[in-house]
Amino acid sequence: MSSTSSQKCAVCGRLTSLFNYGAHSCSACGSFFRRSLTTPKYFEDCENNECCFQDFQRDIHADCKFCRFHKSVDVGMLNISRFTNLSKLVSGLTLLDSKREFVYLNLMVPTSFRSEDLLKQSSVKMVVRPKNIVFDCHDWGFMNQLSIIEYLKKLDFTKFLSSQDLKSFLKSVHFTHAILTSAWRSYSLKQEFMSFPDGLDIFPECVKDVSCISSNLLNKIRCLLINRFIELKIAQEEYLLLSAIVFSNPGMIEKYSSWNTFPELSDTGRKLVGSYQNVYNASLFQYCSTAYQQNGHTRFHELLSVFHVVSKTYEDIKKYLILFQYYQPDTQPKQIYLEVLQMLNFLMDSTPQFCTVCGQSTSLFNYGAMCCSACSSFFRRSLSVKTPLGTCQNVELCFKQYNRAVYAECKFCRFHKCVQVGMLNTQKYTNLPKLMHELSHLDEERKKKTVNMTIPECFDLSSIFNYTSIKFAKKSPNLHLSSHDWGCMHQLTSMEFIKTFQFIKFLSMQDLKIFLKSTHFNHVLISTAMASFSCKQDFMSFPDGTDVFPESIANVTCYNPHFLNKIRCKLMARMIELNITTNEYLLLSAIIFCNSVSTDLSENGRTLINSYQKVYGSLLFQYCEQTNQKNGPLRFSELLSVCHAVTKTHEDIKKFFLLFQIYQPEAQPVQLHQDVIEYLSM
Q1: Residues in CB range of 246: below 8 A, 6 or more apart
Q2: Residues 228 and 263 in one domain
Q3: What Gene3D superfamilies does the record point to (predicted)?
């Protein structure tokens, strides 16, 4: 496709009128990109710190193929419709997977094998396995990882990675792919648990003698992913595309890199892998749409739920390995396998382990992190105590030092260090039925206060942003509230509701003030909409039927009635469309006010609230799976779309208030309510 005027080539900067691969690019760069996609050779690493493509200099790009290709990816030339199609992609993945399976079942490494060759670009040389050699679980596990690493090195995009990025990529994703392929092989054989090809258990025999390793944990590792496969009845094409999405997920690479302590991908590597993930995502969605037609969207979300199960299985295997190495230190695989596992960072270092909170030497693993018994006990007590932790006297910097004496004195920083290292694990301190009961009780109390109470004349404004409860006065039966009165009460009772949540006591006073200001109004919106929805209305109003807008706006012609109705009805329409239940509303409201976090919060505050948002998100997903079964992931996505409707309604209300202050400056609420509104906006 040509353009009427010349523009600069997005890659090299030369003037061109051509449009290739979704970007303005000259014929030379278009041809180079096409050749790069088809050549089987690896690019040589950049000698200029991968900075060549930041300059529009053709002579530099011509010399550095690595940077020239990554510049092409950066400007969007990696377009699926241009260089691949679904049938070709699936055929290529099928061929690679069959070769991987052949290597796994029939070959073995020679005695001359060197572990350092594993992460190089060239293939590892292997020999045919004699029939008289019987593999044990260590042999099978090693060959499974080796065959998968060789499989990953033959993918299209790995030849475009630098040597360091290739090592990081192979180290971080090979084991998640090993989990997926092992589950698929057992599923194909119609088994209900993972095992090796000859029927051997994936765990060593000696595990049975270790009482501290729970049989429930072992069975969960064996069966959890296969049960999901059986439930979804996954086809081979779906498995191949899913596996491609799993190993091309940059977020997953960074997640597992942080555990295995090897370098993350560079910016160019992350963009490249992310671009290919988009290709595989689009291909899976295309396959689902073709194979399942109207149900394609639902099937796509069901398949993506497999990632969560893979991640959970991976986490369980981590726990098992830590326990196994601690309680069975003498049971080790052969020396060559041990060298490979250590190189892949899949064994704990032989050096002493330290508590990730206080730095004290420990061998314990509690709440998802290496931590001593004192820190785990402190964390457990902190979650159950009802009083705030107090304030830090050291500008919240205590947790940046490994000093136990400091931690013992500063409970605030010690707890936030626990959160930072990942100890806030939903499975350890909460469960869905208990949380639903608590949220339901708190929301009922909020509704009673909104309807039956009012603001006293001697109201103390400073009590709004304290840990203590706000004191209300009982409302007189003959008292009629205006829209200003109702709006003010809704804001105060929403803040009172939010202050009852567990994590509030862990915020500093300054963070508490910022958090309540930035989040309370979104909760006002969803709670008001839910109350109107429960009354079977199709627009938002206050409990006595009062309109959410002041009566005086009827006399002002500048307000667009469509705009006002959009505020009244947009969120309501989404809730009616989804037919939201009370339990879904309660979990959504928790996610919404944890999602509306201000950038003014401290680093500790943001980390804490984001951790709790993940907890509530995980519990909502769990609830959707329990109540909607196969359609659980789709229901979860639909419910999260309510957050967008809340945000849009909030933005429209801001526009209305701006117009209201311009056109009706004299129409103000009573002085007390005006003081409250001004105090909330300080």
Answers
A1: 173, 176, 177, 180, 252, 307, 310
A2: yes
A3: Erythroid Transcription Factor GATA-1, subunit A, Retinoid X Receptor
Domain contains 359: no
Q: Are the C-beta atoms of residues 212 and 327 closer than 8 Å to each other?
A: yes
Supply the pLDDT for residue 180: 92
Helices and strands counted in the chain (H then E): 25, 9
**572 and 452 within one domain:** yes
Res. 430: pLDDT tops 70: no
Task: Give a yes or no: residue 358 inside a domain.
Answer: no
633 and 304 in contact (C-beta within 8 Å)?
yes
The parent domain of residue 671 ranges over 432-680
The domain boundary residue, chosen from 28, 47, 80: 80
| Closest CA relative to residue 681, chosen from 491, 509, 484 | 491
Helix (H) or strand (E) holding 678: helix 671-680
Give residue-wise pLDDT tens across range 442-488: 999 999 988 888 887 777 667 777 777 878 888 888 888 888 888 88
102 Cβ contact list (under 8 Å, min separation 6):
none
DSSP 8-state assignment for residue 361? B
Q: Does 526 have pLDDT greater than 90? A: yes
Q: Tokens at residue 131, please? A: 């029939």
The whole-number average pLDDT for the span 15-21 is: 76
Residue 245 CA to residue 250 CA, distance in Å, equals 10
**Residues 200, 334: one domain?**
yes
Structure tokens at 20: 């290739």
* CATH code for the domain in which residue 554 is found: 1.10.565.10
Q: In Å, how far are 155, 161, 272, 521, 560 from 41, measured between CA atoms?
A: 12, 12, 17, 57, 63
Same domain, 61 and 158: no
- At residue 124, does pLDDT exceed 70? yes
Specify the CATH number for the domain of residue 402. 3.30.50.10
Q: Are 487 and 578 in contact (CB under 8 A)?
A: no
Domain count, the chain: 4
Residues 95 and 159 in one domain: yes
| Range list of β-strands (E), 141-229 | none
Kindly state the greatest CA–CA separation across the chain.
Answer: 95
Provide the whole-model pTM. 0.53
Strand partners, 127: 108
CA distance 278 to 284: 10
Domain shared by 175 and 203, yes or no = yes
* Count of residues making up the chain: 682
DSSP state of 54: G
Asked if residue 400 lies in contact with residue 346, where contact means CB atoms within 8 angstroms, the answer is no
What is the torsional sign of CA 187, 192, 195, 199?
negative
Instruction: Indicate the range of 151-155, 190-194, 408-412, 535-539 predicted with least confidence.
Output: 408-412
108, containing H or E segment: strand 107-108
β partners of residue 7: 16
In whole angstroms, what is the distance from residue 660 CA to residue 667 CA?
9
Percent of the chain exceeding pLDDT 90 equals 12
Q: Has residue 251 been placed in a domain?
A: yes
User: Based on the domain organization, do 610 and 667 belong to the same domain?
Assistant: yes
DSSP-assigned letter for residue 51: -
- Are the beta carbons of 76 and 23 closer than 8 angstroms? yes
Domain termination residue (choose one: 403, 426, 449): 426
Could you tell me if 422 and 440 lie in one domain? Answer: no
CB 646 within 8 A of CB 526: yes
Name the CA dihedral angle for 323, 311, 102, 148, rounded to a multiple of 10 degrees: -80
Of 532, 529, 552, 533, the C-alpha closest to 483 is 552
Compute the radius of gyration of the chain from its Cα atoms.
Answer: 30
Say if CB 531 and CB 585 are below 8 A apart.
no
List the structure tokens of 218: 């072992």
Beta bridge partners of 201: 195
